[in-house]
Amino acid sequence: MGAASSFPRQILSQRRTRLVGMLRTPINRELARRLPDVVGAATARHLAKLGLHTLDDLLRHVPRRYVASGQMTSFAGLTVGMDVAVIARVRSAEVRQGGRARVEAIIEDADGHTLTVTLFVPSAKGGVPRRGVAEYWLRQLAPGATGIFVGRVRRFRDRLQLTHPDYVILDGARIAARKSDSVKARSQAAMARLAQGPTMIGMYPATAQFPTWLVAETIQMLLPTITGDTLPGWILELAEQPSLTAALHDVHEPRHLEHAEAGIERLRFDEAFGIQLAMAHRRATLASEEATPRVPPRGGLLDALDATLPFVLTQQQRREGQTIAAELARSTPMHRLLQGEVGSGKTVVALRAMCAVVDAGGQAVLVAPTELLAKQHHSSFMRLLGELGRGRTLDQPKGTHVTLLTGSLSAGERRAALERIATGEAGIIVGTHALFSDPVEFFDLGLVVIDEQHRFGVEQRAALTKKAARKPHMLVMTATPIPRSIAMTIFGDLSVSELRQLPAGRKEVKTVAVSTMHQRQWVSRAWERIREECAAGRQAFVVCPAISPDEAQVDEADQPRRLASVERTAAFLKNGPLADLRVGVVHGRQPSAERDETMAAFTAGELDVLVATTVIEVGVDVPNATVMVVLDADRFGISQLHQLRGRVGRGAHAGLCLLLAPIDDPEGKAWQRLKAVEGSHDGFALAEADLAIRKEGDVLGVGQSGASSLRILRIADVDLILQAKELAERVLDDPRAAEDPLLADLLDKAAEMAAGEWLEKG
Ligand code: ADP
Ligand code: MG
Fold first, then answer.
1. Ligand nearest, relative to CA of residue 373
2. Residues lining ligand 1, CB < 6 A?
3. pLDDT at 21
């Protein structure tokens, strides 16, 4: 690892957090300025609502789309679907009553081509159109007036029209004279100016209080203040990217759409490069860490386990097992993600790795996100290991103690467990967060396996690994597959193993998406199916998005929507369609004892139906459960639904999953998501579909976790990400990097990012 000790890499691993004031270069100090100092407190408050806090944030706020400015637009070239700003003269305007009351104006361009502008008149209480509004519009759209109209061209009865365009009447004197501070006035003035400008107009994500026109104007005002670049020239050259100033001008004031695209590409590159530097940092850090190689001798616990496995390992399980074994044998810590959906057989892969470490004299822990899952892992380990898991004895000289450590152990049990862990008598430890607490001392921790990794923060992970004198190897398991492109981007420091094939004999869960708007009868049919299954001795889940009925929820269009709740649904089912069945309830607000008790009763077959929230999403294993009805299924993500349905059909009988949702629009995203789940059982493919359908999620979805450095990079940018990755490696080994203050700033930011928790989030 000669490269790991070269100068820039060394800086990388030494730097930790840094203050903005310590930035070395004027350009970075300028870009880091807080917006209140740049644009004033009032405007900054509006921009903060858009997540924009620094000058850098603002300048990298990219338009969603562009419209051609008025001067460039002749009506002759208009086609349906175009976004335009047109400058035109009003030829006529009148109120139309047929159908919805509306004002219809005919506008014409310089060559006499015409276009219809339609404004629907809002209704007052009682549904009567508000005449005052119509009259106001007629006054504005007086024949002969010139205006700017911005909107999307549509076709209505063979004529092109703009419906509710943003418009402003150009009465130059009036606009100029109106010194009003009202947002509307300022916005209209900005719009008039922009629409008459020579460049295309960016339409930005904005708010009602601070419309796109004001965003555009604010940005354009600031563009000239930026000189210089955040990347050194030699890196720009290697990356074949334009300068920052050129890119910013092309993004915010393009003359052609292609220019805008090239500019945005540069900004995306900046993000990709920043991330990949952070990843390179992580890899460098890991490469400089030491771990104990764990090479199991033949004839130990692992071989004994393999000899007693009740099934044949799949090809993938064997192959990934070999990869893991090879990494455990190295003197740098393994850092690997094991992806595979529920039931793909990750547990046995992990257990085999743990046994190998025990054979090599070390200890291995498995950390689960909940007590329930820890217990399940513990018992499935015990099932697989049998007598081998009860400690080393004369009869079982290869054995080890499989120890459970959770928060609910009695003081005595806990003391005994801690002692076994400290003495090394316990080779395999299974637990929850309790493992992170201070008094846990390991004898020789060699491997940490983390189940459901995205539920753990990086600090917890760090807390666990700190306990080892040398770094333990790390295997992170996730049942929510992350597409490789994302895994590489977000988890660029982890290598990835995938288990895509399910063990033989696994049956697919038949899934049906149902629109309760169009197929009402299916709701009662769903309850009937549950009765049928339970009559045949099987069990069912009913999943709701809410716990109690008073949880305020809004739908995608911000309309209030009352979601199916566990409490109401259970009450309804008990008193109605499932009155003769034993119905239990679980959700996250119950005391965990109560929840565990109900789960245990369901597992034992003492309940027929479990009405639940997504608490049952992970790991619950009741082979006798065959039906799942998901209510308001559109409230769940694709991967989540896929995960949920994995709870049924795990035994001898086929599973059925009904996804019910009040969906009206068969073209809409909500319905597409449900149809995707109905149509595919490949968790990896579904994860990809999830990302493809989520438009905003088109942007790598880490926004909520405060990753302000990731704004516009998309899944589709895999090539760019790859290019940035190669370049990051190359740059770090380039002698020019050592003296470059710009790169030093970048590396600082990368180190800060690498330390950030957001990198852990899926
Ligand atoms: P995961 O942890 O990925 O959800 P598990 O490891 O719990 O999946 O496996 C699910 C079930 O499949 C378990 O009962 C396990 O014993 C069984 N299993 C694992 N591997 C195989 C295999 N190769 N052939 C048959 N059954 C298997
Ligand atoms: Mg599992």
1. 2
2. 311-314, 317, 340, 342-348, 479, 503
3. 44
